[in-house]
Amino acid sequence: GVDIISVIFGEKYYFDKQVYSHFLEVSKKTKSKLLLHLQPMTNGLSHSPPVLNYNLNLIKNISKLKSFVAVKEDAKQHKFTIKVIKKTKNNWSIIRSGGGMEGFIKYYPHGCQSWLAGIECIDPKIAFDFYEAILKKDYKFCELIFKYIERPFFKLVSKYGWHLTIKSCLSFVKLMSSDERMPMKKLPKQQEKEIFNFMKKIRILSQNKLQKSYFPLVK
Asked: What's the pLDDT band for 184 if we cut at 50, 70, 90?
């Protein structure tokens, strides 16, 4: 009943035919729509370099398989990302992973259709407002989101890590408890208090600077 399944190549890389034949078999055996999680692969031929990016023609061939409708481009290498977009944008939806909304806006002119949500997990309305602003070319509003919401959020993430930070943020708006998702532990009380204070601050900033009511408590 799921809408889409994310798949990743977990074996060591030896040659392109090996990778393509794997995903061809997966595509043949499922009726589900598939998303390719595109990360560098472990180099099975040498330790130098230890990981390798997918060959661009290999990515294009995978994008043509009937079940593959999207790719999460997670190499986080600017020039490579642009090449992937140009090579495959007509075959599937491309989701840029890393950099959030401010990162996505660099790739949108090249044909990238979407981005991996960050702070929008806490309040999805931010994503819809941001994308609407892009369509209207209201880049001033986009810059306000970056300045007052996204950049401060990623600064906090760089301090405490993505999963622990977002878990505490979700707890603040009462979407989940900080104690959920064991065996992952919650942040210590003082550190979580810092995140809660951050959420209170950007809630006020969103009202004063963006004239938006973001991060409401879930009833």
From this structure: confident
pLDDT at 181 over 90: no
On whether the CB atoms of residues 28 and 64 are closer than 8 A, the answer is no
Mean pLDDT score of the chain = 95
Q: What is the pLDDT of residues 80-125, one digit of tens each?
A: 999 999 999 999 999 999 899 999 999 999 999 999 999 999 999 9
- DSSP result, the chain: --S-EEE---SPB--HHHHHHHHHHHHHH--S-EEEEE-PEEBSS-SSSSEEPPPHHHHHHHHTSTTEEEEEE----HHHHHHHHHHHTTTSEEEE-SSHHHHHHHHGGGT--EE--SGGGT-THHHHHHHHHHHTT-HHHHHHHIIIIIHHHHHHHHHH-HHHHHHHHHHHTTSS-TT-STTSPPPPHHHHHHHHHHHHHHHHHHHHHS----SPPP-
